[in-house]
């Protein structure tokens, strides 16, 4: 599992796909500082003089309340509070609502090399956007050797040994109107402890290797609607060569799970052999998974009907 750190400058660059509207107003010398956690802090208690448990190692957010409180402080008290505030190793300060800090704050921010930004976003909106950005950056991540495809709105992760046909299956699915997310290398992040999001590598995104054909750019060949940058993983499909002596699930009553980053994902094994139409099986599996999310379990319903029929037949024989 990879644990990431970013530099403060990355918040204004291309590290995030969300524009936070940040304008640097002080502390330019400190934009190379690292951020190693995705939490934020509103320093209201610190501005009031209470610095016990001050979370100085987080991004400090100054909303309208904090800004208004700072303005009403007496000059001597303000200097004392600001000096105490900057005596900690503060990583970064951000003022919302396009509110600018006063000259004393800017002077101390430059002296202590604390990057200070202003954004036009409202406080609640900005905190929501920033939290989303930080969660994606700092969420636990693994890289999986597989292929991720959006099939009927269901993120299907195709796994299997090299050469089993994952890319060819994905290519057929794309030709049938579905969308490729990633081939060969799938970056998987656990977002907010509730979902697994799959991404393509920045380097090889939207490219596929097809044996006998070589490397193709799916977006260029099939168009922009054939790809997407990320997708929630809701089903894992293991493709494996058919083994004549192996018993494969023929009913689908039991729910198998595959663990990724300590989260369980529905899992099925699909045996591959000449003559089997694997893409249409994947499509059917995706549609079946959608039904299960709505509480419809076809195999269990059929089993219940058979059990009921057997019970009724048994009663008839006893009557």
Mean pLDDT: 88
Which regions contain 5 or more consecutive residues with pLDDT less than 50?
Answer: none
Order of helices and strands: EEEEHEHHEHEHEEHEEEEHEEEHH
Which term fits the overall shape? Answer: elongated
The CATH class of the largest domain, by name, is Alpha Beta
Q: What characterizes the major β-sheet? A: 5 strands, mixed
Q: What is the beta-strand fraction?
A: 25-35%
| Helix amount | 25-40%
CATH topology of the largest domain: Rossmann fold
**Can you count the beta strands?**
16
Give the CA-CA distance, first to last residue: 64 Å
CATH second-level architecture of the largest domain: 3-Layer(aba) Sandwich
How are strands sequenced across the largest beta sheet? Answer: 2-7-6-5-4
CATH superfamily of the largest domain: P-loop containing nucleotide triphosphate hydrolases
Count of alpha and pi helical runs? 9
Number of domains: 2
- Alpha carbon gyration radius: 27 Å
Structural class: alpha/beta
Descriptive overview:
The protein is elongated, with a radius of gyration of 27 Å. The strands form four sheets. A five-stranded mixed sheet has the order 2-7-6-5-4. The chain has a five-stranded mixed beta barrel with strand order 8-9-14-11-10. Strands 1-3 form a two-stranded antiparallel sheet. The relative contact order is 0.11. The model has no long low-confidence stretch (mean pLDDT 88). The longest helix has 21 residues. Strand 10 and strand 11 form a beta hairpin. The chain is α/β, with parallel strands linked by helices. The chain folds into two domains: 132 residues, Udp-n-acetylmuramoylalanyl-d-glutamate--2,6- Diaminopimelate Ligase, Chain: A, domain 1; 163 residues, Rossmann fold (3-Layer(aba) Sandwich), CATH 3.40.50.300.
């Amino acid at each position: 599992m990879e644990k990431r750190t970013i530099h403060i400058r990355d918040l204004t660059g291309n590290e995030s796909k969300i524009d936070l509207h940040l304008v640097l107003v002080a502390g330019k010398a400190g934009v190379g500082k690292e951020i190693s956690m995705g939490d934020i802090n509103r320093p209201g208690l610190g501005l009031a003089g209470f610095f016990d448990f001050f979370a100085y190692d987080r991004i400090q957010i100054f909303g309208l309340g904090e800004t208004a409180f700072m303005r009403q402080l007496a000059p001597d008290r303000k200097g004392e509070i600001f000096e105490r505030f900057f005596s900690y190793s503060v990583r970064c300060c951000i003022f919302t609502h396009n509110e600018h800090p006063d000259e004393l704050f800017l002077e101390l921010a430059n002296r202590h090399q604390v990057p200070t930004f202003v954004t036009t976003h409202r406080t609640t909106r900005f905190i929501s956007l920033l939290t989303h950005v930080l969660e994606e950056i700092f969420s636990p991540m693994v890289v999986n050797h597989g292929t991720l495809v959006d099939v009927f709105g269901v993120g299907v992760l195709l796994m299997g040994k090299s050469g089993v046909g994952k890319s060819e299956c994905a290519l057929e699915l794309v030709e049938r109107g579905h969308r490729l997310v990633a081939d060969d290398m799938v970056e998987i992040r656990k977002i907010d402890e509730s979902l697994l999001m799959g991404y393509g590598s920045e380097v090889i995104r939207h490219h596929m290797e097809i044996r006998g054909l070589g490397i193709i750019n799916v977006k260029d060949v099939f168009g922009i609607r054939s790809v997407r940058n990320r997708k929630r993983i809701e089903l894992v499909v293991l493709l494996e060569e058919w083994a004549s002596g192996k018993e494969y699930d023929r009913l689908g009553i039991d729910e198998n799970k595959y663990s990724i980053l300590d989260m369980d994902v529905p899992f099925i094994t699909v045996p591959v052999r000449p003559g089997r139409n694997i893409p249409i099986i994947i499509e059917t599996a995706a549609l079946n998974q959608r039904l299960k999310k709505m509480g419809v379990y076809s195999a269990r319903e059929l089993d219940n009907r058979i059990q009921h029929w057997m019970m009724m037949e048994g009663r008839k024989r006893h009557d």
